[in-house]
Write a structure and sequence with these properties.
Layout lengths: L1 H11 L16 E3 L2 E3 L6 E5 L2 E2 L12 H4 L1 H7 L9 H9 L6 H11 L5 E6 L7 H4 L4 E7 L2 H14 L4 E5 L12 E7 L8 H11 E12 L10 H10 L7 H10 L2 E9 L2 E8 L3
Parallel strand pairs: 5-6, 5-8, 6-7, 8-9
Antiparallel strand pairs: 1-2, 2-3, 3-4, 9-11, 10-11
The protein binds zinc ion.
Amino acid sequence: MESTRVVAEKSAGGELGIYACPVCKRLLHQEEGVLRCPSCSQAYPIREGIPDFIREELSQSKDAVLRRMRFIDRMARIYETKLWYPIVLNVYGGFHSPSLGQLISTISQKVQSTQGRLLDIACGPGTYGRRIASPSKEVFGIDVSMGMLRQGAAYVAEEGIPNVHFARARVEALPFEDGLFDAALCCGSLHLFADTVIALREMARVMKPAAILSVFTFGAGRGGVLKFRRVREWSRRNVGLHAFDLSEMEQYLTASGFEDFQPEMSGSILTFSARKQTA
Ligand SMILES: [Zn+2]
């Protein structure tokens, strides 16, 4: 009896209580195995503890990046190993690209003084978020790949990391209320979103005024294959990879409600921070 009551109390609160309908942004009610919207009645299943807010079949998507989801799901196991991350960094970014460890450190420093809730956009297996989570930093990771999220949940369980939660959602339809997050990360994915401004606007919506956004993406820099304009054009057309000019990125940020753009380019690796506008 006692244990049933404790379980019921735990599941009534807990991190699942934070999620909102990605369509109408109302807070969701928890039912057996689903989160249900009291307003539009949409039900979102919880699979292996991970809420799933994507109702469409991504293999049929108009977006070429999303159509590759099966491949991305299968990559989850090798994503953080030397078989993948360093190769991508060196080919696209240039041979003197920062290592994954250096990138994690750069990204972490920008949110070091932040306490509270952090959103990790396109978190993969929690590559950055689970290394930044702490007793004072609760990380909510979202990604479109269930394979990546499951791998993340397995790492978090193995490594005994508290304060990391995963959900499957698209950056264009975040399952959160307005102004919820004290900071946001977006590492290794901004260049892949179909519409950068739509993605950034949705991130800004769920952030508090003056909250910091910490990003690693690709720029039109001087390293790797992305230093060639033709490769950048080809990548954008054929793989949906957008290597940004700094002035272009600043325009996108301003148009999306951010200010205080602080970029650093190393080869063709672009890391930057920006703040959500206060007014
Ligand atoms: Zn709804």
